[in-house]
Design goal:
Layout lengths: L3 E2 L5 H10 L5 H12 L13 H10 E2 L4 E7 L6 E6 L5 E8 L4 E4 L3 E3 L14 E4 L2 H15 L5 E4 L9 H12 L11 E5 L3 H9 L5 E5 L5 H7 L8 H15 L3 E7 L7 H12 L3 E7 L13 H11 L5 E4 L22
Parallel strand pairs: 1-2, 6-9, 9-10, 10-11, 11-12, 12-13, 13-14
Antiparallel strand pairs: 3-4, 4-5, 5-6, 7-8
Amino acid sequence: MSGINLIGLTRSELRNFAESIDEKSYRGDQIFSWIYQYNETKFSQMTNLSKEFRSNIEKSAFLDLPKISDSIVSRETSSIKFLFRLNDGFSIETVFIPEKKRNTVCLSSQVGCALDCQFCATAKMGILRNLTVSEIIGQLLSVIKETKQKITNIVFMGMGEPMMNYNNVIKAADIIHDQRGLNIGARKITISTVGMVNKIKQYTKEKRPYNIAFSLNATNDLERNKLMPINKKYNLKSCLDALKDYSIKLKRPAMLEYVLISGVNDTYEDAMRLSKIIKSLNCKLNIIPYNPIEGESFKRPTEYEINNFINNIRAENTIITVRWSQGKDVNAACGQLYTKNEKK
């Protein structure tokens, strides 16, 4: 294939592309709709474009999605984990999560992750590289083709730290949100972060419309340093200050994610400190029971431990939800994504 891959280009970029091959700019809007609204990957099927125009496009561009090399369906929840093989031989995982009133796709943003969170399988891979916009968007388009389902929600909670691939993730979210394409509402798109304070501040300054989910997972610096080494660079106070600023300036609640690990971060004292944290923020709290990964001795809390912890929080006017990750039986749940890759 020669030329430019049009998958991953914004509407504005496709308008510029149309002009670069001596076509009217509105032709770029038509291509954008074919790619993202109709999920078409063959120029020959873009029937409102003239044969001459389609021929002209094919001389300078192509449409390339990452290839699905395997998939596995959860017997517990019907979630589907997809394994994608990228053009350079690296592989990533993506999860389709069907529920009663919504269908969510959990997208990866990096091959591996640099941040070494102790409870996360992806961290065991180390970081190999960022994904391109076409690889991020391509995951979603491929899942739609495979499942033939309308997608209602997007979470950037797969492999990698989205804020460490900030520009590509934001661009992908903008394409997903565009009304001429997939048209998924901004409040249905969530970008997760372990607490990249500089990027949260940039995100707030740029007034981005999507939700932020902050992976909290500990209530003091001592414990968070152990579980999430990035806390040594961006401590808990700096993260919470950035989230408070985000919530006030953008007038929306932050989402706190708390992976509950039996005997590690589930004490009465943890609950009291967590109560204090959420009272200081406009936020929602998701309690995520730990999902076991190979090579770690952490234990999943019992239902009694979960309920006891939540009861001890005693937070008024804050929405607290237990998020039972789907696909645990096929290693597709929160913290379980992992692929074998060799550094190039």
